């Protein structure tokens, strides 16, 4: 069976996918009903020899009841989708995991992502932080750990998009927005900008490199050694 969506590698990605297919189902049904309501009368009331035309004023409860029925059904669908997505929204957008395993900063600029790692003291926003600022760079994180990310922008609005994590968040100048993820599968995955941010927007691509803990620790050691040179 052909995979419809990009491979999911996050702990909450399955919930996002379920919501996607639920919303798609409602939208497809609404589209089908709307198209049927437009097409069926074209054939049912098409011109026939000897048939007299009639005028339908379209007022009164006989006609309006279908408008109210449609509004009620759509409202119920909307409320159901709000109910279905609430727990996932709270998990992704409004809470952070109790255990913070690694904290990193992602900053958008025209036209690349800047990654700031905590230094040997394992604390961000201190003098020994390590900044990686180059085109097509990679964000390295350990697999199976709770990763906290502070998302920022320097110049214009960007949008950091981890398609394999099912996480997309605007990066807004002057604001710090904190999100999190836990990735389960080592590998290399694309990080894209999902907000048009200038003439080189399409080139604003980086990579998420998910590593086993020992390999990730070696990467950090090499990063610290490179900074000391």
Q: What is the fold's blueprint, element by element?
A:
Blueprint: H1 13-44, H2 61-94, E1 102-109, E2 112-117, E3 130-133, E4 138-142, E5 147-153, E6 158-162, E7 167-171, E8 177-181, E9 187-193, E10 205-211, H3 213-228
Parallel strand pairs: 1-5, 4-10
Antiparallel strand pairs: 1-2, 2-3, 5-8, 6-7, 6-9, 9-10
Helix pairs in contact: 1-2
Largest sheet: 5 strands, mixed
Describe the oligomeric state of these chains in a short phrase.
single chain
Per DSSP, what share of the residues sits in E-state strands of 2 or more residues?
25-35%
Task: Give the strand order of the largest sheet, numbering strands 1, 2, ... along the chain.
Answer: 3-2-1-5-8
- What name is given to the CATH topology of the largest domain? Immunoglobulin-like
DSSP helix fraction: 25-40%
**Terminus-to-terminus distance:** 51 Å
Structural class: alpha+beta
CATH superfamily of the largest domain: Cupredoxins -  blue copper proteins
Summarize the structure in words.
The chain is an alpha+beta fold and 229 residues long. The protein folds into two domains: 13-46 and 56-94; 102-228, Immunoglobulin-like (Sandwich). It has three helices and ten strands. The strands form two sheets. The chain has a five-stranded mixed β-sheet with strand order 3-2-1-5-8. It has a five-stranded mixed β-sheet with strand order 4-10-9-6-7. Strand 1 and strand 2 form a beta hairpin. Helix 1 packs antiparallel against helix 2. The protein is elongated, with a radius of gyration of 25 Å. The model has no long low-confidence stretch (mean pLDDT 88).
């Amino acid at each position: 069976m052909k995979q419809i969506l990009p491979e999911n590698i996050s702990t909450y990605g399955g919930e996002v996918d379920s919501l996607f297919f639920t919303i798609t189902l409602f939208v497809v049904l609404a589209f089908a009903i709307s198209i049927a309501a437009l097409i069926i009368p074209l054939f049912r009331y098409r011109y026939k020899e000897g048939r007299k035309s009639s005028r339908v004023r379209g007022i009164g409860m006989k006609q309006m009841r279908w408008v109210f029925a449609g509004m009620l059904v759509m409202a119920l669908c909307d409320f159901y989708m709000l109910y279905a997505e609430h727990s996932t929204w709270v998990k992704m957008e409004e809470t952070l995991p109790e255990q913070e395993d690694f904290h990193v900063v992602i900053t958008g600029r025209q036209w690349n992502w800047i990654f700031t790692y905590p230094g040997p003291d394992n604390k961000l926003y201190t003098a020994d932080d390590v900044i990686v600022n180059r085109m097509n760079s990679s964000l390295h994180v350990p697999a199976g750990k709770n990763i906290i990310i502070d998302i920022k922008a320097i110049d214009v609005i960007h949008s950091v998009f981890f398609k394999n994590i099912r996480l997309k968040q605007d990066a807004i100048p002057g604001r710090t927005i904190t999100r999190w993820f836990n990735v389960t599968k080592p590998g290399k995955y694309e990080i894209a900008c999902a907000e048009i941010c200038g003439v080189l927007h399409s080139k604003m691509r980086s990579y998420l490199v998910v590593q086993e803990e020992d390999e990730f620790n070696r990467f950090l050691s090499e990063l610290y050694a490179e900074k000391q040179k």
